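Predict the 3D structure for this chain.
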Amino acid sequence: MTRIVAATVAVLLAVEVCAFALADRALVVTITGAALAAALLWIRSNLVRHADAVSDTPVDAAANSLQRWHSRTETLISWADSTRADWDRRLRPMLARQFELAVGARTRKDPDSVDATGRMLFGERLWPWVDPDNISRTGATEPGPGRDVLDEILQRLARL
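Done. Predicted structure below.
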């Protein structure tokens, strides 16, 4: 921006010098006014262009981020409504990881403690859907638990 203003001042000074070299003083006012108007229009157009570029970037980035989040959430919900194999392959690892992070316990170090904590937190009905050791090998034919179970599990994880 400072370069634009400096260039404008330099052009105006050059126009002033050229205009004063002429003998007709009425022409000096006209040339100076035209040069000043052109410089101000040029600065305004650059400011508008710069403001549009600055304002578009964060909004587009936020909109793109929101669109990706929305698409990912729809995919997760569709996996919850799909087969148990999809649940075991895609949702169970994510839920188990979130559970381990929330509780601060690692499954490999003390599996009995993690199992007891999971049963206390989720109850007997929901814990089998979060338990990382409860993967079914024949899950392709079994239905998944559905979005209601996913919603309840996520609500209980959010309370931690």
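The chain has five helices and no strands.
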